[in-house]
Write a sequence for this structure.
């Protein structure tokens, strides 16, 4: 694999994808730490995995699906009681359509 | 005051009426009051609720109703498991003040077995760490040596048992978060087979790896807790419907002729000589008990740390997307003056997550991002297959595999804080069984000369917790008579 250069620009790009507003000092710190971790991970490159199937999870073939039946869940009142801001019968969010 | 912290003995005495659940609970709470100022195993002590539960158990007995397998047994719960009506934070500022409206399945099963939930234990934030120092609410200290960490991420659950505040507790293990703290604190800790225990209500870190499991003062006590929490749950689509074994009876099985594999890759550079000597002495004890000790090879072991930190962080970056300041927990718009949704997300997540959580979200987002997915995430999933195959081949030749649970005894608080990679490398012996989804546990073996606990890790075949427990229990009995 082409080893990426973990620089501030890459960290800012990834932070934006992850919805994290980082301070300048955080960007500096994570740039250097992630650079070291990513170069450690590059050791996986030494293995030839062309004919190897990926493992996403193990043993779920033994986990049956449940019947699709409606059952009572947690009440709206109990759920909304934990929300930081409520409007009417729902969660309140800032405007997101201009 | 009641001080006999043995899961089975407490349950037996409460069932027979020789001790009340209330007196046992009161003793547990009193011990927490004395010891936990120094240890800080608990984020929340549910004293009133615990005493109410204990009195309800005593009343049930007074009415002549049969009591459950954990009658009156105080149990501490890792704060990653949601508990109805009891604050649950995953040791994150993001969830400070959150009071879940439901119980995790494992918690509900403990209640149904008449256990008494005494409180919520400290952990690395969102279970990300190996020392409990990443808690947003301050670290936990190791009751065996307060200058040292109890390990992590389930450090509070391990310390609660090691500090005799409870005879047992629940933790969660994604890459060693039960086994390593068990090893550091001289307690028994079990990570069951992936899918053996429901993850419903476990605040998700890495969904293909997370498992709930018990800590206890002894192997049979841990086995009893496991038998209560294990089993199919329609609310977790990865929870297996295989029958639950009688784990406590399995502890009494003979280990004559059981083949114990010893992987030379686990006795490599970086292993503390005292830990190695202790584990080798344990193997010699098992050999005297009739086990057949065999060398095995797990050649991809050295790739486990890299593989794990790609897969676990990728899954974490996705799981932690739910913390956005809308439905629960922290919400802030920051001080930029902007008031749009994107600002709410970014400011909330920056204020709510600690440094290690941000580091892992960034790494996980990076390995999943366009242009890097194949090279990192897909590659790691393929190496995970190679690591699984190592175990499949080895476990054709042997019945269990034994190793140290951690390359060193408990390290000092602050010792590895400045070097995330060094902290990750500490997990080298516990990560492979997690990646392979296999059951694994830590049982105390001979301490170091200075008295620090050392853990023997025993790994078994998928769903064969029984053989693993038989070996652990046999070793525990012989160690006591040494």
């Amino acid at each position: 694999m082409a080893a990426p250069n973990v620089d501030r620009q890459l960290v800012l790009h990834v932070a934006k994808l992850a919805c994290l507003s980082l301070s300048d000092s955080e960007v500096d710190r994570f740039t250097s730490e992630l650079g070291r971790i990513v170069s450690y991970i590059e050791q996986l490159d030494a293995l030839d995995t062309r004919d190897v199937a990926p493992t996403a999870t193990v043993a779920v073939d033994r986990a049956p699906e449940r019947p699709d039946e409606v059952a009572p869940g947690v009440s709206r009142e109990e759920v909304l009681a934990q929300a930081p801001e409520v409007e009417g019968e729902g969660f309140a969010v800032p405007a997101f359509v201009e | 005051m009641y001080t006999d912290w043995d899961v089975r003995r407490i349950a037996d005495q409460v069932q027979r009426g020789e001790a009340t659940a209330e007196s046992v609970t009161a003793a547990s709470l009193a011990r927490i009051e004395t010891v936990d100022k120094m240890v800080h195993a608990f984020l929340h002590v549910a004293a009133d609720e615990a005493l109410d539960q204990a009195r309800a158990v005593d009343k049930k007995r007074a009415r002549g109703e049969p009591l459950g397998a954990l009658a009156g047994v105080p149990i501490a719960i890792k704060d990653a498991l949601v508990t109805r009506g009891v604050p649950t934070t995953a040791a994150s500022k993001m969830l400070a003040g959150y009071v879940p409206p439901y119980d995790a399945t494992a918690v509900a099963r403990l209640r149904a077995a008449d256990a008494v939930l005494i409180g919520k234990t400290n952990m690395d934030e969102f279970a990300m760490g190996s020392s409990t120092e990443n808690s947003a609410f301050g670290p936990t200290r190791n009751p065996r040596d307060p200058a040292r960490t109890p390990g992590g991420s389930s450090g509070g659950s391990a310390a609660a048992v090691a500090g005799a505040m409870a005879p047992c507790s629940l933790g969660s293990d994604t890459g060693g978060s039960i086994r390593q703290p068990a090893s550091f604190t001289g307690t028994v800790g079990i990570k069951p087979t992936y899918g053996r225990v429901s993850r419903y209500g476990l605040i998700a870190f890495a969904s293909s790896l997370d498992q709930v499991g018990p800590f206890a003062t002894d192997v049979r006590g841990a086995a009893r807790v496991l038998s209560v929490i294990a089993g199919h749950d329609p609310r977790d689509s990865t929870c297996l419907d295989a029958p639950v074994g009688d784990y406590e009876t399995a502890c009494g099985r003979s280990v004559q002729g059981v083949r114990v594999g010893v992987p030379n890759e686990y006795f490599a550079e970086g292993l503390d000589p005292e830990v190695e000597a202790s584990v080798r002495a344990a193997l010699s004890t098992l050999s005297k008990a009739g086990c057949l000790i065999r060398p095995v090879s797990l050649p991809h072991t050295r790739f486990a740390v890299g593989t794990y930190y790609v897969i676990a962080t990728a899954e974490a970056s996705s799981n932690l997307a739910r913390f956005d300041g809308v439905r629960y927990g922290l919400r802030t718009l920051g001080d930029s003056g902007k008031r749009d949704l994107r600002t709410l997300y970014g400011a909330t997540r920056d204020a709510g997550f600690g440094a290690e959580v941000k580091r892992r979200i960034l790494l996980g987002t990076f390995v999943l991002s366009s242009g890097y997915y194949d090279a990192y995430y897909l590659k790691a999933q393929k190496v995970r297959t190679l690591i699984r195959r190592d175990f499949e081949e080895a476990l054709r030749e042997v019945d269990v595999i034994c190793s140290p649970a951690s390359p060193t005894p408990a390290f000092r608080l602050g010792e590895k804080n400045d070097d995330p990679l060094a902290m990750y490398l500490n997990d080298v012996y516990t990560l492979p069984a997690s990646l392979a989804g296999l059951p694994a546990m830590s049982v105390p073996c001979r301490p170091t000369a200075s008295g620090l606990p050392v853990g023997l890790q025993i790994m078994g075949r998928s769903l064969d917790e029984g053989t693993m427990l038989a070996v652990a229990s046999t070793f525990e009995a012989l160690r006591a008579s040494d």
